[in-house]
Each structure stands twice: as C-alpha cells, then as structure tokens.
Design goal:
Elements (H helix, E strand, L loop, with lengths): L16 H14 L19 H23 L19 H50 L1
Helix pairs in contact: 2-3
GO molecular function: ATPase binding; proton-transporting ATPase activity, rotational mechanism
Membrane topology: Multi-pass membrane protein
Function: Essential component of the vacuolar proton pump (V-ATPase), a multimeric enzyme that catalyzes the translocation of protons across the membranes. Required for assembly and activity of the V-ATPase.
Length: 142
C-alpha cells in the first residue's frame, strides 16, 4: 500500500564529507526528503557518524539530569518553555562549545551537591557535639 500523495523518486546524493552536514540540514528544512539506509549490513557502532550521535546522546543525558535536579529543587519557574517554532539546526562547532559548557556546568553542579552533603554531615556532627557538651555540662552542674 502506498499512502503517499506524490510518487517517490530514488536519488543518490554524493557530497563531500565536509559539506554533508550543511546539505542534510538544508534538505531537512524542506521536509521533502526521506533517507534510505544503504549500509544496513553495518552494525550501529560501525556507522560513520556514531561519535556525533553518542555526543548528542551524552548532551541529552546531561540536560535530563540537570532538569531533574532543578525540578527536584522546586525551581520550576526557572525552566523556560521550549520554543519549537524555531527549528534552526545548530552548526557542529556550536554544539561542541555547548557540550563543553554543559559538561563543565554539570561537573560544577555535582561538586556543589557533594559539598552540600558534606556541609550537612559536618553540621549534624557539630550539632551532636554541642548536645553532648550541654548534657555533660548539665551533669556536672548537679
């Protein structure tokens, strides 16, 4: 069964590796292209752009982690709504810059959480010592 309104034509697009990203972005803006996998015999890890896909997956994981932490902290007002009307594709060099900043932010945030946990432990230890000192003082006053 063919549910398409127009007949399809199979074309082969051969572009230089450096221009492939920009070409796919421009073709994707028109939403008139369907890509066919000509390397179906390759496993996922043998694909050409597997590193870029992994990087994007790591960025997505990091964003999900930070979003969950913000939501758990009760700061839901600080998460802006997603603008889906702007479908511009970000150049890879901008994604690399974003990735570096995001991972640095995540590292700093994890360090902040570790410091907070350590401060809470120290506070509880000091509070416990204070309580012991007060009990000892009360014991010897009698």
């Amino acid at each position: 069964m063919n549910f398409r309104s127009e007949p399809l034509k199979l074309c082969q697009l051969i572009v230089q590796r450096d221009a492939a990203y920009a070409c796919v972005v421009e073709l994707g803006k028109y939403s008139l292209v369907q890509f066919k996998d000509l390397n179906h015999q390759l496993t996922t890890f043998q694909r050409t752009y597997v590193r870029e896909v992994r990087r994007c997956a790591e960025i997505e994981r990091s964003l999900r982690y930070l979003e969950n932490e913000v939501l758990e902290g009760g700061a839901t007002d600080h998460i802006p709504n997603l603008d889906i009307s702007n479908a511009d594709v970000t150049p890879m060099r901008d994604i690399y810059v974003l990735e570096a900043k995001l991972f640095e932010f995540e590292r700093d945030f994890r360090q902040f959480l570790a410091n907070e946990a350590q401060l809470k432990r120290n506070y509880n230890d000091l509070k416990q010592c204070k309580c012991v000192y007060e009990k000892v003082e009360a014991f010897f006053k009698v």
